[in-house]
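Budget justification aside, the reviewers requested a transparent look at the raw inputs and outputs of the sequence design task funded under Objective 1. We therefore reproduce one unedited record. The lines immediately below are the structure tokens for a 372-residue chain.
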């Protein structure tokens, strides 16, 4: 298969982790006789520094002409401490979602057996957790009308949804539930918000079209609590933009590190794949950023094109790296010299030599050959 992949490394640790995902995709292409071409574009703070625009037209063009987009992370601390900045890195990501109509964000949350002791939660609570979060991505409060008074003492953000916007992501979530445990949970705040009541009304109307899927309705505050108390009860979670953002970040506690959570943002014509973490600027260029979420996002990219064998090989390589503690310091305190690049190298080597299982731990941790 030939794929043209747009690569938007972004800011902070984005370039480091994205480089490892590209490395792994190149290994897949070599092993399976695919042709993947990569075209790089600027976005976020890096784009502002170079062009004054967080989403340059050139980058939009690269993405529109690509089969898929591999995204890193955006953000910079200098904008975080300046609430008056009118041009911000995040506008690049929001703009990209809107211009490409990437309306459905899909975030898997899986508790890896070898990392259960890394979670802040008890093993008995999180074991066997496997959740798929469907977050609406191009509307809601993030995209609603924003106002601020002339004196700067009053501000508003409008949360607005249409039937069309809700229905299209809800259909995807229902279909995903049909192929899993056939349970869907709608998370809203229908006891307070009119927009949430529209979500609930529409999902109730759609539910009879999926009679094999049971539907639960939870308020966001209760869902946030239940996600910690008993995450195994969830299969597919469907929710609006801001609630989905918050819940998926909370879910990182379950798996032990936000550096493990991948995502796909899907539209009718375009698809983008990215780790859910931010730019984590203070960790940039130190070799400590966990690239696994970016690598797993690359696996989701392959799944999108029905390259399931290739995607599964990446996931097996990730599983092997976790089992052997070939991970960055956020997950590995025993061998804290294993860098971002070394994790990518190991998974690349595994793809090239998937049948080799006799691993030399001494050489691995000395940074020499990983597979013998």
């Amino acid at each position: 298969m030939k794929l043209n992949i747009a690569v938007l490394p972004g800011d902070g640790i984005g370039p480091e982790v994205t480089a490892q995902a590209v490395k792994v995709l190149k290994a897949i292409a070599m092993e399976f006789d695919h042709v993947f071409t990569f075209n790089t574009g600027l976005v976020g703070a890096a784009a502002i520094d170079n062009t004054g625009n967080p989403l340059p037209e050139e980058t939009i063009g690269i993405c529109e002409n690509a089969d898929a987009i591999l995204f890193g992370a955006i953000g910079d601390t200098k904008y975080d401490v300046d609430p008056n900045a009118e041009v911000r890195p995040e506008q690049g990501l929001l703009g990209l979602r809107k211009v490409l109509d990437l309306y459905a964000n899909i975030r898997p949350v899986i508790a890896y057996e070898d990392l259960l002791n890394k979670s802040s939660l008890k093993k008995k609570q999180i074991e066997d957790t496997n959740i798929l979060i469907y977050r609406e991505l191009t509307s809601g409060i993030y995209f609603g009308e924003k106002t601020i008074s002339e004196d700067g003492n009053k501000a508003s953000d409008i949360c607005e949804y249409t039937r069309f916007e809700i229905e299209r992501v809800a259909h995807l979530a229902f279909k995903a539930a049909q192929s899993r445990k056939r349970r869907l949970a709608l998370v809203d705040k229908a006891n307070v918000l009119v927009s949430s009541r529209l979500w609930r009304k529409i999902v109730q109307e759609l539910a009879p079209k999926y009679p094999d899927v049971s539907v639960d309705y939870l308020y966001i505050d209760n869902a946030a609590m239940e996600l910690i108390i008993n995450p195994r009860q969830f299969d597919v979670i469907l929710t609006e933009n801001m609630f989905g953002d918050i819940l998926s970040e909370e879910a990182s506690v379950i798996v032990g590190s936000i550096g493990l959570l991948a995502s796909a943002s899907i539209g009718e014509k375009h698809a983008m794949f990215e780790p859910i973490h931010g730019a984590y600027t203070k960790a940039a260029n130190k070799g400590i950023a966990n690239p696994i979420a970016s690598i797993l996002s690359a696996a989701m990219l392959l799944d999108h094109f029905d390259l399931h064998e290739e995607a599964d090989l990446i996931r097996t390589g990730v599983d092997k790296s976790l089992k052997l503690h070939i991970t960055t310091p956020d997950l590995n305190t025993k061998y804290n010299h294993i860098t971002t690049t070394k994790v990518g190298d190991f998974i690349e080597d595994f793809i090239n030599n998937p049948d080799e299982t006799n691993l030399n731990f001494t050489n691995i941790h000395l940074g020499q050959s990983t597979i013998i």
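The mean pLDDT is 92. DSSP finds 14 helices and twelve strands in the chain. Computational costs for records of this kind are itemized in the attached budget.
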